[in-house]
Each structure stands twice: as structure tokens, then as C-alpha cells.
Amino acid sequence: MEVNVNFTDKAKRDYLLIRSAIDHQDRNAYAELMANYRDSIYFMLLKMTNNKDDAEDLTIEAFGKAFKKLEQYTPDYAFSTWLFKIATNNCIDFIRRKKQNVYSLDKGFQDETGTEMAGRIASDVLDPEETMIKEQKINIMRGIVERLKPHYRILVELRYFKEYSYEEIADKLNLPLGTVKAKLFRARDLLYNILQTSEDRI
């Protein structure tokens, strides 16, 4: 597959890395692609979400989705264009989900007949059946996390069960911040693969 002749030197560099990643499963190529765009993707997502932790998580998700679909990439346009589109669409979906079922406390809304109604907030309290289902899902997820190697498992537990920030994890484990993010990226990839082959479904 020929690279686009209109590509910049940077785009050509990316294409060679992509070929190396796909053809030779070169982990260094994946790492270099991530290093080239991690900061710019993060700052774009930070502007969209205005939340550092959400931006960090969405950055990891964007690269995860891009790398899983890497064989679908075609050199009709630059890798950066393709990657930013994936990151943007994923972030828009995240924001949409976050806003779902959120109502203003001080503004009413109209029903289908145009009648003004008071704002209503859905209860945060789960009914007994929902509580049981939630607990079952947590137990299944904990069982799957237990299959990870210890150095991945502790990261996942701190981040997703105890809700530590990346900085807090780095401090607690005495690890560089970049190492924490890279290991969590790998851990999430491993969890995804386990979930895909597991008889349990979340």
C-alpha cells in the first residue's frame, strides 16, 4: 500500500510506524505513535471535558480504540487526522452519556403538550434488584481483575475501585507518572481481552 505523496514528513513517519506495528507487531512502534500524539490528544480532550481525569481516561481510550482498528487505517489521509477523529467522536459520546438524565434544579421543562412542569431529578438510590445486579457486576469484575499480574492488578484496583488519581497512584507506588499511565493503558487492554474470552459478561 503506497503512502499518499502529499503527506508531510511527519505523516510519512507515522505511516512507517503503523506498518511496523501491523506487520511486525512492533511494540516500540505503538509506543512511539502514542508518544507523538498523547499530549496533543490530551489537551484537546481537556478543552472538551474541562476535567483532567476524564481527559486522561479518554486519551487512553482513544489510543486503545485506534490501535485496535489500526488495520482499518488507510493512507488516504494522515494518521493524526484519523486519530483525532476517533478521539473527538469518543469524547462526544462520553459527554452525551454524562449529560443523559441530568435536569436543571431551577428550571422547569415542558411536557409533550407544552405544559410547564417542575424539574424532576431521578433518584440516586437503587432499588433492591438494581443493588443486587450492581453487586454481581462488581464481583464479576473483581474476579476478572484477579487474573491480572500483581503489578497490573494493584494499578486497576487503585484507579477504578478506590478511585485514586494518576498522581496519587504515582505517589503511593513511587512510580513515574508516565509509567503509571502506560501500565494502566496496558492493563485496560488485558482486561478487554479477558472480557472478550470470558464466560462472564458485565
Write a brief caption for the model.
The chain has helices at 9-24, 27-49, 52-68, 79-99, 128-145, 150-161, 166-173, 177-197; strands spanning 109-110, 116-117. It is mainly alpha-helical.
What does this structure look like?
This protein has eight helices and two strands. The protein folds into two domains: 9-99, Rna Polymerase Sigma Factor, Chain: A (Orthogonal Bundle); 125-197, Arc Repressor Mutant, subunit A (Orthogonal Bundle). Residues 101-123 have low confidence and may be disordered. It is mainly alpha-helical. Strands 1-2 form a two-stranded antiparallel ribbon.
Features:
Rna Polymerase Sigma Factor, Chain: A, two-stranded antiparallel ribbon, mainly alpha, 202 residues
Provide the number of structural domains: 2
CATH fourth-tier homologous superfamily of the largest domain: RNA polymerase sigma factor, region 2, helix turn helix motif
What is the number of helical segments per DSSP (H or I, 4+ residues)?
A: 8
Characterize the largest beta sheet: strand count, sense, and whether it forms a barrel: 2 strands, antiparallel
Which value, in Å, is the CA radius of gyration? 21 Å
Which CATH architecture of the largest domain is right? Orthogonal Bundle
Estimated helix fraction? 55-70%
For this structure, the CATH topology of the largest domain is Rna Polymerase Sigma Factor, Chain: A
Order of strands in the sheet with most strands: 1-2
What is the strand content?
A: under 5%
Question: Uncertain runs with pLDDT below 50, 5 residues or more?
Answer: 101-123
